[in-house]
Amino acid sequence: MSAPVIDVADLDVYYGTSQILFGVGLSVRQGETMALLGRNGAGKSTTMKAIMGLAPPRRGRVSLRGAVISGLKPHTIARAGLGFVPEDRQIFPEHTVEDNLVIGKKKGPEGQDEWPIKRIYDVFPLLEPLRHRIAGRLSGGEQQMLAIARTLMGNPALLLLDEPSEGLAPIIVQRIGELLRQLRQLGSTVLIAEQNMHFCLGLASHATVIDKGQIVYAAGIDELKANEAIRRRYLAL
Amino acid sequence: MTELEAGRAERLAPVRNGMALQRYRDVLIALIAFAVLASLPLFTGSKALLDFVIRCSAYGLFATSLNLLVGYTGLTSFGHGMFFGLGAYSFGLIMQKLGVPIPVAFVATLAITALIAAVIGAICVRLKEIYFAFVTLAFQMLIHSTILSWASFTGGDQGLRGGIPRPAFFGIDLSNHVHLYVTSCALLILGLLAMRQIAQSPFGFTLRMIRDNAARASFLGIDVWRAKLTVFVLAALFASIGGMVMALFVSGAYPEFAYWTISGEGIFINMLGGVSTFLGPMVGTVLLLLLNDTVTRFTEYHGIVLGVVILFFALGLRKGLLDFVAEWFSRRRDAGEGR
């Protein structure tokens, strides 16, 4: 097996005095799409923020392809090859779609440029006709695609997606799902934090389940599909 | 690949041309403004008017540099006046103690300011919002009390007395009132033009991006700390030039130049003129100095009048004067387009 792209070990994160994550660990290998599943408030977003350096861990270690990145500033982590798509998308609402994409442009950690804008439009055909539209006037689903596309423009070694299906209509969620399946086929390495298990079952290769700030289950996606007990205990509404 | 790059260049060309055009326009406006200001002594013998413009130059440079922090980066500094005082004192002391030519003292003062601003900035720009405001204020008080207590060097509460020597250089004699006036105008216009270039550069747009959402800027790969520190030092340099103009004008330096009220006036000016336009602080400077001069002629309680005016702007208009005018124009234009 190849070495993991990202390896998270023994992560403790606090907001003020209250502890949110308790020894969280997970790892994603090249080409995998890992789903980090859990209920609302389980610690999914905090794990993502801790990896990105936006919620610095008090204990534990995050390494990206063997190099320790925990404790670094978010911009250094971004330049080291982590591409973060936040829960609230954070596009630039007053700028055009294409400006939003160009802002995200940077070389990958090895100086590679695998995502020129033309390829972005090939993979995201919906964005091309919208390129001169003001991003704030796009629908939620279009904004989500734009946020993912903007992050890909930075040629990340690992894509972090925080709740990509949140607040979107089911038909749009399906479309985002297709897009992520396509990214997986293209060989992208992805970590998705999601509440929506069914959304992830169809597109992830592996799954990790988090509950009350601790990892309670980790396996291939087919095992999770077969394990009704875990699904009912931690993920059913 | 090359085809794509060509396409990209083609797409960006109008943007680049637009930027270049705007730069030429700015330079042209600056030249005209300088020509108008510099020819003023030909039409009027009023010393008071020229003095007023010199003071506007000093305060205008200071207030506009503060707007780089407040308006463009979202860093509300309550201690920006320290660099105004630092400029005045460094320049005055270098001229008095070393007797070097004025341009040398000018550059040396900028170097000193840059160094001190880099140290103070490195500590302050890590902090957010109100903490940044208070720590900058604390540094201002530190510099002010240093000036007060190091009396043997700075003259203490008496300030730098005995006048600042103003030897002529390149045919410019700053002890001549008109020469001093034209030099102040030139420094103002050059300073404004330089700050305008900074504000419209990619770096300037990075600052706006940080102001709007620093977390977003950082996960897109921008070193927020370094950008904030850079603008903190740049703003300090222009404030320092303002202080030097003031020191040349009064031929001395006084502890009030480094007191927190100077920072307070800078914030007032920005509130009066508005922070959403580049020239807002300049408008605010003229307003504040006009108010100061006219009101003090009638009453010693000018603070009350100023306070009422500030309240009117803060609570009534909820923006500065130039913000108000700019919005009015854009509303009218929208209405004209039938929107």
Envelope shape of chain A:
globular
Most extensive chain-chain interface: A-B, 20 and 17 residues
How much is the radius of gyration of chain A in Å? 17 Å
What percentage of the residues of chain B does DSSP assign to strands (E)? under 5%
* H-E string of chain A: EEEHEEHEHHHEHEHEEHH
Largest sheet: number of strands, sense, barrel closure of chain B: none
Describe it.
The complex is a heterodimer of chains A (237) and B (339). Chain A is α/β, with parallel strands linked by helices and 237 residues long. Chain A has one domain (4-235): Rossmann fold, CATH 3.40.50.300. Chain A has helices at residues 44-52, 74-80, 97-103, 117-123, 140-152, 170-185, 197-201, 221-226, 228-235, and strands at 4-15, 18-29, 33-37, 59-64, 67-68, 82-85, 158-162, 190-194, 206-211, 214-220. In chain A, the strands form 2 sheets. A 6-stranded mixed β-sheet of chain A has the order 6-7-8-3-9-10, sandwiched between helices. A 4-stranded antiparallel β-sheet of chain A has the order 2-1-4-5, with helices on one face. In chain A, helix 3 (97-103) runs parallel beside helix 5. The radius of gyration of chain A is 17 Å and the shape is globular. The termini of chain A are far apart. The relative contact order of chain A is 0.19. The mean pLDDT of chain A is 90. With 339 residues, chain B is mostly helical. Chain B has one domain. In chain B, 79% of the residues lie in helices and 0% in strands. In chain B, helix 3 (81-98) packs antiparallel against helix 4 (102-124), helix 7 crosses helix 8 (202-212) and helix 8 (202-212) crosses helix 10. The two termini of chain B are 42 Å apart. The interface between A and B is medium-sized, with 20 and 17 residues.
